Amino acid sequence: MMELLPAIEISASGLTAERLRLDLIASNLANINTTRTPEGGPYKRKVPVFEEKLQEALGKNPTNAPGRGVKVARIVEDNTPPRLVYEPSHPDADANGYVAYPKINVVSEMVDMITATRAYEANVTVLNAAKAMTLKALEIGR
Length: 142
Hints:
Elements: H1 6-30, E1 46-54, E2 67-77, E3 83-86, E4 98-101, H2 106-140
Antiparallel strand pairs: 1-2, 3-4
């Protein structure tokens, strides 16, 4: 069955994906000084991996099928070695007095936040335009 408003569905998937991206950025920034996690060691920066949602329901070859938005394929942890800071009095200091902190760059996280916010705003604009066009189309039928 053909979907009535695919632009709204595509924009909604973009909104969901960018919201998750913003949540992960907020988590990264909130945990910038977390030296201990349940898994052991310092917090690891998390990044979403997006992939295109394809329209496979029509039985077409997915490589030629029109897109249906975006989805989060997985969330990846950054395995960059932690930054070591000499703090011998810290409870998580090693035998040499160094504490392992997450390797999170505040500037790059802020840039990612700005790009995610812009992408979110762009999807809201598309959603509003699709809604307005749908309302105009309904007015024609009156």
